[in-house]
Structure prediction request, 285 residues.
Amino acid sequence: MSRQIYINGTFFPQAEAKISVFDHGLLYGDGVFEGLRSYHGKVFRLEAHVRRLYESALAICLEIPISREAMCQAINEAVKKNGISDGYIRALVTRGAGSLGLDPNRCSNPQVILIADTISLYPQELYDNGLEIITTSITRNHPSALSPRIKSLNYLNNILAKIEGLKAGCVEALMLNHKGEVAECTGDNIFLVRDGVLLTPPLDAGILAGVTREAVIELAREAGITVQEISLTKHDVYVADECFLTGTAAEVIPVVKVDDRPISTGKPGPMTLDLKKRFHLLARE
Ligand code: PMP
Prediction:
C-alpha cells in the first residue's frame, strides 16, 4: 500500500518522497530517529519519544526546525492520514544536504521525515515459547566514542551485531559494553529476574534509554516488584531465573536460551509473562 510520507510539513505519495543524495543523513548517517507505535490510532508515549528525539538531536548539535509540539502534531497527522490503527511510525531528522565534506555547518536544510506504516511483528510462537539469542562479539559503542543514548541514523554497531545473530540463527543478539558488562540487544533492552528481583543494566552501561524499558520498570514497581538498575555480566544472564527483552516493536518478549544455554527451565518465566501482559494492557488501554 502506498503511504503518504511527511517531509518538512508536506505529505508526498511514497514514490515521490525524496531527499537529496547530498544529504549528510545518507552520506554519513548524520541525523537522528525514533521508532514509535500506535495502538487503536493513538501513539504510545508520544511525548517520551519526541523528547528523546530532541535530546538525540541536541547531542549531535542538530537543530530540529520545528517545535516539539509541532512534531507531536505532525506524527499524529501522519498516523491519521495513512489510516493507521495499529502501526509503526518512523520519525527521522537528517542533517540536510551539504557538500561532500564532513562539515555539518555546510548543511543548511535538515529534513524532518515521518513514515507511518503497519508493523511486522515477531511470530506469535516466539512470544509464547521465547527467543533464543547469542552474545555477539561486537562491543556496544563506547559511550565516549558515540553514546548509545543517541538514537542516531548510524546504526552500524547494531547492524553488525544483528548480522552475527542472524548467522547463528537468532533474531536478536546480546551486546556487551567495553567493560564486558551486559548492555542491551541490537534493538531491545534486556531484563533479568533473580530471586524475585527485576534487574536491568543502568543507563551508564551505555544503552539506549528505552521507552518500553521505562514503562516496564514503572509497571513492575506498581506491582510491588523490586527493580534494580545494576551492572550485570554474562554470568548473571546464565544464572538468571528469567530473561526478557523490551522494545517499541517487540513490546515484552521472553528469552529462553542465551548462547545455547537454557535460562532456568528453558521456558518463559512467571514474572516475564505477568509483565508482558501488564504492558500489553497498558499499551492498549
Ligand atoms: N536499544 C536499542 C539499541 C534500540 O534500537 C531500541 C529500539 N528503539 C531499544 C533499545 C528499545 O527502545 P524503545 O523501548 O524506546 O523502543
Remarks:
- Helices lie at 24-28, 46-59, 68-81, 124-129, 156-167, 211-222, 234-238, 270-284.
- Residues 124-284 form a domain with the D-amino Acid Aminotransferase; Chain A, domain 2 fold (CATH 3.20.10.10).
